[in-house]
């Protein structure tokens, strides 16, 4: 199913960019981490013909890049190679690189061109195909929140918001939507915009977010969910590369600072029919003051039904669960409503034709392909089974009773994932088993490590 780019694409690109001497071949592992290898100018053509070999186990690693000892993938099966082939439209120059460099996203296939079962791009394609079966196309827009942190302090084990290169000022207070904070990093943020322009990443806006050193970038919507996620992963890489060039660190950790807002990956999704009509628009709902259809309600019903078992995807590591606290614009229970940021499922304001769901559950550390695949799985499940959601929530969502109970601790979320009834039908039972085994292995290893707070609380008192 996975589309592969034609040879003509790279030949035309090389002709347009005679200066490029090397290419970063990238693929996205289970965690959303970019892995791959650097290729020479002539060798990059292999991505468009027979493919570049890499170990198939690279899709299924822990966060530190190690094989999972509890899986028969890696050393247990001899770690065979698959073939990396270029994804269409992802071959781009890398602005600001030390040497003239290009980059391209790849997907792995076997010798029969069958996609790797754990390729996140392939898993997203499976979810999108289910909508094609019912004559609908998902339209996706992604928002990323991230922090800029001080590189020198971090090297010494202390994490602070970055100092402004212009003023040497370090923000210490929330200044949400403050333009001064944007101008404090105008050269860095300007280079991010320039990198997006060169790479065709449709970044629309950038704002100072709800914490010192935190920013958000919004991407324009796309009727190709795979393209939307390719662009989001290229945006994340561009932000990190530009930050490094400016002597700072861009982090997409869900919760780098305990007392500050976490960073989210928000997904806006609507559905259009074959004539381009938004099927989520309907009669006015006076409770939430938005014109919504039964299709949207059923999609909400499915998202709420799938949310507990999907939390292990939306919050994929130990730090992810630090973000899930009441009163922090992060979810602690499954509820929905209108233009209300205290809810995990929000129906934003705007023109009637643009009615959509904003899914606000995931941390910025999550794999965007898997997040969107899980979101689409929940929506499709709700629509095809006509699941009616509970009434919408009005007012402060944290102060309301009821809602779907969510597993907001890592082991509990992994248990809910292991008992999933919805996701295996969309992502495959074998992949779900592997994902659970990988995350459980990492969870156990993290649990048995001694953390700084243990010494602070117990060293002298125990």
Mean pLDDT: 91
Give the beta-strand count: 18
H/E element order: HEEEEEEHEHHHEEHEEEEHEEEEHEHHHH
Distance between the termini: 58 Å
Overall spatial form: globular
Helix content: 25-40%
Q: Cα-atom Rg, whole angstroms?
A: 22 Å
Structural class: alpha+beta
Number of helices: 12
Provide an overview of this structure:
By secondary structure, the protein is α+β, with helices and mostly antiparallel strands. It is globular and about 60 Å long. The strands form 4 sheets. Strands 7, 8, 9, 10, 11, 15, 16 and 17 form an 8-stranded mixed beta sheet that branches. Strands 1, 2, 3, 4, 5 and 6 form a 6-stranded mixed beta sheet that branches. Strand 1 (22-28) and strand 2 (34-40) form a beta hairpin. The chain has helices at 7-16, 120-132, 151-155, 179-184, 186-199, 225-245, 294-314, 368-384, 410-418, 423-427, 429-447, 452-458; strands spanning 22-28, 34-40, 52-55, 81-86, 92-93, 101-109, 137-150, 203-208, 214-219, 248-251, 265-272, 281-285, 290-292, 333-334, 336-337, 345-346, 357-359, 404-405. The model has no long low-confidence stretch (mean pLDDT 91). Helices cover 32% and strands 20% of the residues.
């Amino acid at each position: 199913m996975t589309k592969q780019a034609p040879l003509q694409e790279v030949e035309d690109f090389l002709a347009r960019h005679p200066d490029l001497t090397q290419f970063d071949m990238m693929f996205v592992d289970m965690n959303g981490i970019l892995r791959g290898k650097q290729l020479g100018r002539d060798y990059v053509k292999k991505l468009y013909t027979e493919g570049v070999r890499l170990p198939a186990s690279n899709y299924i690693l822990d966060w530190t890049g190690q094989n999972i000892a509890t899986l028969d993938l890696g050393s247990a099966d001899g770690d065979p190679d698959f073939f990396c082939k270029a994804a269409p439209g992802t071959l781009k120059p890398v602005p600001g690189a030390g040497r003239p460099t290009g980059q391209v996203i790849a997907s792995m296939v076997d010798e029969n061109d069958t996609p790797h079962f754990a390729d996140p791009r392939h898993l997203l394609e499976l979810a999108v195909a289910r909508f094609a079966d019912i004559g609908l196309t998902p339209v996706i827009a992604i928002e990323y929140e991230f922090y800029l942190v001080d590189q020198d302090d971090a090297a010494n084990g202390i994490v602070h918001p970055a100092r402004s290169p212009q003023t040497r000022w370090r923000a210490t207070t929330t200044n949400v939507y403050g333009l001064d904070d944007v101008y404090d990093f105008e050269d860095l943020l300007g280079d991010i915009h320039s990198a997006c322009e060169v790479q065709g990443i449709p970044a629309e806006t950038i704002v100072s977010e709800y914490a010192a050193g935190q920013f958000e970038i919004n991407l324009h919507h796309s009727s190709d969910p795979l393209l939307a996620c390719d662009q989001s992963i290229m945006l994340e890489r561009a932000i990190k590369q530009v930050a490094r060039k400016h002597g700072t660190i861009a982090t997409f950790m869900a919760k780098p600072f305990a007392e500050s807002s976490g960073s989210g990956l928000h997904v806006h999704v609507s559905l259009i029919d074959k004539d381009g009509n938004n099927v989520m628009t309907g009669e006015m709902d006076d409770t939430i003051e938005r014109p919504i259809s039964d299709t949207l309600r059923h999609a909400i019903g499915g998202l709420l039904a799938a949310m507990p078992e999907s939390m292990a995807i939306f919050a994929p590591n130990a730090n992810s669960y630090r973000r899930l606290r009441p009163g922090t614009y992060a979810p602690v229970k499954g509820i929905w409503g209108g233009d209300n940021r205290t809810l995990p499922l929000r129906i934003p304001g705007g023109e009637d034709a643009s009615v959509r769901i904003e899914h606000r559950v995931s941390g910025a550390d999550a794999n965007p392909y898997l997040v969107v695949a899980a979101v689409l799985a929940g929506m499709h499940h709700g629509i095809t089974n006509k699941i009616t959601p509970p009434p919408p929530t009005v007012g402060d969502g944290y102060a309301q009773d009821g809602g779907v109970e969510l597993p907001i601790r890592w082991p509990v979320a992994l248990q809910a994932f292991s008992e999933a009834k919805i996701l295996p039908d969309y992502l495959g039972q074998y992949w779900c088993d592997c994902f659970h085994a990988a995350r459980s292995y990492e969870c156990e290893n993290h649990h048995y490590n001694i953390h700084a707070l243990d010494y602070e609380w117990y060293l002298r008192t125990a």
